[in-house]
Amino acid sequence: xxxxxxxxxxxxxxxxxxxxxxxxxxxxxxxxxxxxxxxxxxxxxxxxxxxxxxxxxxxxxxxxxxxxxxxxxxxxxxxxx
Length: 81
Description:
Layout: E1 8-10, H1 11-16, H2 18-27, E2 30-33, E3 41-43, H3 46-71
């Protein structure tokens, strides 16, 4: 399960110690901010990203199944689309 992001890192600090921050991103997501208050970015490992996508797909599938069951409450078979 994903956790809230605890620490943000400025882009200049990120550049200075890139290997250490990339290693840290394997453990948990990291927020990188720009110097002039620009938009923050989240860095996470490819494995963490794929897990996030799979969890979202599971949520969508569960919602679709719930909808189909409700629609077909009194039928013996569910029509899959």
